[in-house]
């Protein structure tokens, strides 16, 4: 039977069909749905970890214990997990171990655009790159076989267009799930220097064996067509190539570390002009050039953003027309090569914090108090946008707290006007360690934990503070206040995020206090509200527009009637705007 | 490109463009076609602009559609039709829901919602159908079925038997909402063929 699946769903299906028993991740777009879908198979133990490093360590442990294991994360998550990854490359595996890295060319929802293919040669582990959902599933099998045959973790690298595009997948029956018997093997799994040195040599031998495997693997295949020009490509770029140049010969690499050098040289000898088509860095290009082969790649294609059919036709086509007029592109193609002009100018529609979002009021207060805000990654990062503009920095998960330490150490004057804001899930991810630093190094930082009781940005995943697991079991809940106290924070305050007066009073007090403080501002994410409370109403509006400064999408101004209007279906009745209107024009519905 | 039909859904987070694209893909599959569907989400629920792309035909390679290569543009909101009009082929069709959802910059007075959207679209695109989909859905019994009203209109523009669409609704819509969605679908369909 065939089903239409996203790459993420296909990887989850592969985990089910090919005997994976343990899976761990921290949610991050575009990788989140891999674990969400794995959790639908009760045969697999699956979990959210508080961060990617922990997830990777859980995976390594499960593999040592004999289970086929999968760990998933977005590209920046691999930076967090890099520490255990690089040593796991030494120790190798017992049960097959897959690390999925979901990269985000074009930064649809990421803070940077790194090309994680570089992790493969860096960590000296093999890498697979599927070109559609079917291959995403098939490559789970291939990755497990490689992992167990060559005793190595395997990097399965996808991009947003693979993760979130749906294409047809043939579904199969699940194989038997087995756990390999456990035996102690300290020389392999205890990486003290004496043991690691032996494994270091093994790494080189393994890489050489993998190179031979890559030469023979059907995952690297040639489609011979016109000899005048050939293209080497991988991942989703293969699809763009097939559509843009149906007449071209193609070498599609499914194993992109180690690359099949002989296959590449043979292919290069067969064609007159050779291109490398790859998104982001000249990863393949540089390796191919190092073989002494003449190829054209990043001279014609940008090292950032996503590729597309028209971009290939335009840039490669133009080059071909000059370099090799005999293979000039067809007229149909040249139509598409023309730039399409955008005829109208529409105001932008940026994502915004939802109506009733508990972060809104807190940010409004912070803005009123003119505080410097060391921010973090989550829905609340949207507070950067007008009208709240309540964020000075945002670097990576967990950096709000540690950066605040740095800012304060560098410029002690900031201490009296600086807050770090961090969400509950992000605090679990890597805020805790920053908070230890705050206390230990005696700063007067004020940390506001915006606790909406969920990982909201990625679509509502549980974490150690929510009392539920991915597999939907009840579990103990981390008490943020008790945790902060146990780390040595003496000033801990808990406030209702919708009670603006108290929020303001507490923030003022804590920012002024000459020691570390933690404020926990609590209200659930607006998208979790089931029974809506009644919408507010606006009567006798004085048209001062002050309430519009909170940027609630449920409020707008009617120019003709000179009044603020509440969009009833959108309003959750959070009351934040009521507290801001000085004239009492906004009221509880029915009151 | 030759043999591939490109359909673009554009709208605002929460309007149901993703469900609509799933219904359409189901229809295409029942015809035995290859289908690719691409969506970029992550912040979709937070009121941002949402785009999903459906490509169907004998064999489909790229999951994404090129600018100027869309056969049918289905806009769930008229400002989004405006924003994405350049994606249409010269002889492409636009189905536009005459609903106005103001983006935040407009709500706070930092930008203006253009008044001339429908006139501009009509004068620059040969084949535009404007539809009060929200009203039709409300009449059918559920304002949330606006997306399915638009699917009814789309069905009227495609050469696929109605039963196929009905089957797709049955497969993709939860049972307790099925009746109201079928009504909404027919409301759209009848609006287009009358
Ligand atoms: S999803 Fe939740 S946390 Fe995120 S903006 Fe909406 S209400 Fe706020
Ligand atoms: S009560 Fe006010 S701030 Fe809260 S959702 Fe309704 S309109 Fe927005």
Description of the molecule:
The complex is a heterodimer of chains A (591) and B (194). Chain A has 4 domains: 2-177, Rossmann fold; 220-320, 3-Layer(aba) Sandwich (Rossmann fold); 358-522, Thiamin diphosphate (ThDP)-binding fold, Pyr/PP domains (Rossmann fold, 3-Layer(aba) Sandwich), CATH 3.40.50.970; 537-587, Alpha-Beta Plaits (2-Layer Sandwich), CATH 3.30.70.20. Chain A starts with a strand and ends with a strand. Chain A is α/β, with parallel strands linked by helices and 591 residues long. The longest helix of chain A has 24 residues, at 193-216. The model of chain A has no long low-confidence stretch (mean pLDDT 95). In chain A, strands 3-2-4-5-7-6-12 form a 7-stranded mixed beta sheet, with helices on both faces. Chain A contains 20 helices and 23 strands. Helix content of chain A is 36%, strand content 19%. In chain A, helix 4 links the parallel strand 4 (68-74) and strand 5 (97-103). Chain B has a single domain (5-99, 115-193), classed as Pyruvate-ferredoxin Oxidoreductase, domain 3 (3-Layer(aba) Sandwich). Helices cover 42% and strands 23% of the residues of chain B. Chain B contains 8 helices and 6 strands, in the order βαβββαβααβαααα. Chain B has a 6-stranded mixed beta sheet, with helices on both faces. In chain B, strand 4, helix 2 (78-84) and strand 5 (88-97) form a beta-alpha-beta unit. The longest helix of chain B is centred in the C-terminal third of the chain and has 19 residues, at 175-193. Chain B is globular, with a radius of gyration of 16 Å. The two termini of chain B are 31 Å apart. Chains A and B meet through strand 8, helix 10 and strand 21 of A and helix 1, strand 2, helix 2, helix 3 and helix 4 of B.
Give the C-alpha Rg of chain A: 27 Å
Which CATH class of chain B applies here? Alpha Beta
CATH architecture of chain B: 3-Layer(aba) Sandwich
Low-confidence stretches of chain B: none
Beginning-to-end CA distance, first to last residue of chain A: 58 Å
Mean of residue pLDDT values of chain B: 92
Task: Please count the helical segments of chain B.
Answer: 8
- The averaged pLDDT of chain A comes out at 95
Proportion of beta-strand residues of chain B: 15-25%
User: Domains counted in the coordinates of chain B: how many?
Assistant: 1
Are any ligands bound, and if so which?
iron/sulfur cluster
What's the number of extended β-strand segments of chain A? 23
CATH topology of the largest domain in chain A: Rossmann fold
Helical segment tally of chain A?
A: 20
Shape, principal axes of CA atoms of chain A: globular
Most extensive interface: A-B, 57 and 54 residues
Q: Write the CATH homologous superfamily of the largest domain in chain A.
A: Thiamin diphosphate (ThDP)-binding fold, Pyr/PP domains
What is the count of distinct domains of chain A?
A: 4
Domain Pyruvate/ketoisovalerate oxidoreductase catalytic (chain B): 13-190
GO molecular function, one term (chain B): 2-oxoglutarate synthase activity
InterPro entries (chain B): IorB_Oxidoreductase, Pyrv/ketoisovalerate_OxRed_cat, Pyrv_flavodox_OxRed_cen
Enzyme class (chain B): oxidoreductase
